Amino acid sequence: MAYPPRKQCEGNVYHVIARGVGQQIIFEDDADRNQFMSLLEKSCQENDIAIWAWCLMENHVHLLLHAPITTISGVMQTIQSSYAIRFNKRHGRKGSLFQGRFTSIPIENDSQLATVVRYIHLNPVKPGGKLMSPWSSFQAFVNGTTTDLRGTELIFELFGGKKGFEVSHVEAANTIA
Fold first, then answer.
1. Contact 138, 168 (CB under 8 A)
2. What's the pLDDT tens digit per position in 111-144?
3. Which one, of 127, 144, 124, lies nearest residue 135 by Cα?
4. How far is CA 35 from CA 40, 93, 120, 123, 129, in A?
5. What does pTM read for this prediction?
6. Is there a contact between 69 and 167 (Cβ–Cβ < 8 Å)?
């Protein structure tokens, strides 16, 4: 089946989403998450893709990446394939792990960028403020441990600085009911 070409944007910033097939869990434990993040960081570094934000849920992944979409496509195909092989071997399963090709949403302006950053970081927060997954770049932003991230200054600037970033996220989290 031929997919339509991916939409490109001038700024080369994309919200990337990869889901487990049939809502399949793609991370059984922290070892799986560490394996995925290792593949992601290594592949992005080798291909000059900047990771601006990320979140790993049980059955899907949200990434905010900065690079040409053709580069991102090649890297995501490699990561998903490599990770699926390792996951299947480790957990004694066979078959596809990811649902079709990943989704890529071009980020066209600063307002959309701020919305997507908040969305990615708040994805694990469910009604009542319950944190479903601590696996996101939010803590790296807040604690200043952004060694795996680039574009941090730009994102802080969008929110009026680090404090504005934190306040914006807390206010948005409080609206989840």
1. no
2. 999 999 999 998 888 766 666 677 988 888 887 7
3. 124
4. 9, 17, 20, 21, 28
5. 0.91
6. no
Q: Nearest Cα to 36, choosing from 47, 45, 44, 27?
A: 27
Rounded Cα gap, residues 16 and 168, in angstroms: 22
Ranges of H-type helices in the chain: 30-46, 69-91, 110-122, 138-143, 152-158, 162-174
Q: Is 130 exposed, middle or buried (0-12, 13-18, 19+ CB in 10 A)?
A: exposed
Of the listed ranges 99-108, 135-144, 154-163, the one predicted with least confidence: 135-144
At 68 the three-state DSSP class reads: coil
Please choose, from the candidates 177, 165, 171, the residue with its C-alpha nearest in 3D space to the C-alpha of residue 130. 177
- What is the number of residues in the chain? 177
- What the block records as the tokens of 13 is 């910033």
Cα torsion angle, 112, 114, 117, 119, sign: negative
Distance CA 156, CA 97 (A): 35
